Amino acid sequence: MSHELQHYLPLELGLYQSITRNKENNSIFEPYLSNPISTQFDCHCIECKKESTFKFYKEGKSTQYFMDYYSQIIINKINEKLPINFLFKCQRDESHVFYFTLLIDEDKVIKIGQYPSFADLQLHKINKYRTVLKNDYRDFSKAIRLNSQEIGAGSFVYLRRIFENLIEETRQIASGQNSNWDNSIFEGSKMDNKIKLLKDYLPDILVENRRLYAILSKGIHELTEQECLDLFPNVQLAIELILDEKIHQKEKQMKISSVKSFVSATIEKFKS
Ligand SMILES: [Zn+2]
User: Fold this and answer.
1) Judgement on whether residues 46 and 131 belong to the same structural domain of the protein
2) 271 lies in some domain
3) What is the DSSP letter of 116?
4) How remote is the CA of residue 48 from the centroid of ligand 1, in Å?
5) 265 inside domain
6) Are 107 and 130 in a shared domain?
7) CA of 86 to the centre of ligand 1 (A)
8) Where residue 72 falls among pLDDT bands split at 50, 70, 90?
9) Which of 99, 107, 108, 201 is a good FRET partner for 261, with 20 to 30 A between their CA atoms?
């Protein structure tokens, strides 16, 4: 049994999201419900602060116990509609845990608990953007927290604001570097055209897919809660692309200036 499918319940199924168990998807549940001791998955460990493997923890019970009794205990819990807990331990340090709880009502499976939260698992990924985002970093992490709680419009407002701030920062760079820059055309444009006008200063992929971000010009009241949730990952990616580019430019500038100062210092040294 591949460990790939074992990712789904702990890492992909959202909190309070229900999924119907059927023949096709049974392999997602099967390892957890009949033979949990073999279950494991790779995931960011919030204590190690890096990727680790989490393995099912037997809580001192023997393998034989699980072989003999586990599936019966699970059946009883399902019959009585009792929550089923799964505890996993980080392979680097046993005090680092991952925990989730399922409630199974016949063929309906709901995840009713999880630790660490989706937000905590996500937030480490944006840590590298802290310095380039400056004041917007708080809003970025807030957006991710809200989105992981399925709050669509609320999370989207923050993300849209950060995206617009980044576009505005890029506009300032463009108008500073380009003497033909016409601000009035830019200000009167929708997001689609703004991105096009900044095409030399933004990542290509963002420019090519700019129609997606045209939606950002819409008022938040024009979008449904679900539309906001669906848009979120793409807008987040677009923001990260712009930020990656900024980090790259910053590193490049640092290397250039360090080479420059080395060269001038060396020339000075040989002059004397
Ligand atoms: Zn760990």
Assistant:
1) no
2) no
3) S
4) 4
5) no
6) no
7) 17
8) confident
9) 201
Distance 52 CA to ligand 1 centre (A): 6
Residue 209 CA to ligand 1 center (angstroms) comes to 38
What is the pTM for the complete model shown?
0.70
Range of the domain at 25: 4-115
Is 1 a residue whose pLDDT tops 50? no
129 and 80 co-located in one domain: no
Helix/strand/coil for 45: strand
pLDDT value at 3 more than 80: no
CB 5 within 8 A of CB 28: yes
Q: If you measure from the C-alpha of residue 46 to the centroid of ligand 1, how many angstroms do you get, rounded to a whole number? A: 7
Beta-strand relationship, 108-115 and 40-45:
unpaired
Query: pLDDT of 116-137, one tens digit each?
Result: 998 898 888 898 999 999 889 9
Cα(246)–Cα(161) distance, rounded to whole angstroms?
18
Q: Which residues contact 180 (CB under 8 A, 6 or more apart)?
A: none
Question: What is the number of structural domains in the chain?
Answer: 2
**pLDDT computed for residue 2 by the predictor:** 54
